[in-house]
C-alpha cells in the first residue's frame, strides 16, 4: 500500500520529525527519506532546487503537489486530511499557534539547535574540535529561550494550552534532542516544567514512533 505522502529529508532532522509528528497525530500514512520515491535526489542538485528554490528540507510530496517550509507543510496536512485537528478553529487561538510555530522555527531553533547543539554535534574548530568560545557565546540565548518557553508553557499541558497543536510538533523534536544531550541537562534542571513537557510528548503514540534514536552525524 502506497503512503499518503512522502517527506523528503533525513529522519534525524528536527523539522522532518515535526512533519512526521503531524502525520502520526492525524493518522496520515507517510514515507520519508532524502531520495524521491522513484529515484535518487542529489542534495542541492537541480531536482532538489526544482522542489525547493532555496535548497532546504523538508519537502512534502502529495500526489503531484509539492509543499516546502515545515510549518506550512503541517498546516497543509491539517487542512487537507481528515482526523484530529491540529489548529484551533477560533481565529485568535489559531494566531497564537501560528505565532509559536513561527517563533520556534526561527528564534528557538536558531538559539537551541543552530547556535548551540550543532556546535557540539558538528564541531568546526581546528582539527574538528568544539569551539568552546562559540558555546559560551550561544549559551545566554539558549538560557533565555528556555525561560521564554517555560513562561509560555506555564501550567499547561501543551505549549499553547490544553490541546496538542502544530506548535507542539515544531517544538517537541528540538527539546527532545536537547534533553538527551548531556551538556543541556543544566537547562532542564532550572526549568523542570520543560522536562515534564518533553516526557509527556515522548509518551504519546506519535512521540514513540518519531522520537527514536538517530545519529545526527549520518
From TrEMBL:
Q: Domain of life of the organism in this record?
A: Bacteria
Query: Which InterPro entries does the entry link to?
Result: Glutathione-S-Trfase_C-like, Glutathione-S-Trfase_C_sf, Glutathione_S-Trfase, Glutathione_S-Trfase_N, GST_C, Thioredoxin-like_sf
Key words of the record? Transferase
Entry keyword annotation includes Transferase: yes
Q: Where is the GST C-terminal domain?
A: 90-218
Q: What is its EC number?
A: 2.5.1.18
Boundaries of each GST N-terminal domain copy? 3-85
Can you say what this protein is called?
A: glutathione transferase
Amino acid at each position: 500500500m502506497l503512503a499518503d505522502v512522502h517527506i523528503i529529508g533525513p529522519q534525524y532532522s528536527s523539522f522532518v520529525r515535526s512533519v512526521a509528528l503531524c502525520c502520526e497525530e492525524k493518522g496520515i500514512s507517510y514515507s520519508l527519506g532524502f531520495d524521491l520515491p522513484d529515484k535518487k535526489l542529489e542534495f542541492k542538485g537541480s531536482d532538489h532546487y526544482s522542489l525547493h528554490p532555496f535548497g532546504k528540507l523538508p519537502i512534502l510530496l502529495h500526489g503531484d503537489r509539492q509543499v516546502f517550509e515545515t510549518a506550512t507543510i503541517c498546516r497543509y496536512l491539517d487542512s487537507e486530511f481528515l482526523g484530529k485537528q491540529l489548529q484551533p478553529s477560533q481565529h485568535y487561538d489559531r494566531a497564537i499557534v501560528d505565532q509559536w510555530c513561527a517563533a520556534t522555527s526561527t528564534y528557538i531553533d536558531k538559539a537551541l539547535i543552530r547556535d548551540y547543539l550543532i556546535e557540539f554535534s558538528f564541531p568546526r574548530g581546528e582539527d574538528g574540535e568544539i569551539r568552546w568560545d562559540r558555546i559560551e557565546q550561544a549559551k545566554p540565548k539558549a538560557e533565555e529561550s528556555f525561560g521564554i518557553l517555560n513562561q509560555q508553557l506555564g501550567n499547561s499541558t501543551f505549549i499553547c494550552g490544553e490541546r496538542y497543536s502544530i506548535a507542539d510538533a515544531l517544538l517537541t523534536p528540538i527539546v527532545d534532542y536537547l534533553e538527551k544531550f548531556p551538556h543541556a541537562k543544566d537547562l532542564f534542571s532550572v526549568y523542570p516544567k520543560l522536562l515534564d513537557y518533553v516526557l509527556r510528548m515522548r509518551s504519546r503514540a506519535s512521540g514513540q514512533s518519531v522520537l527514536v534514536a538517530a545519529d545526527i552525524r549520518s
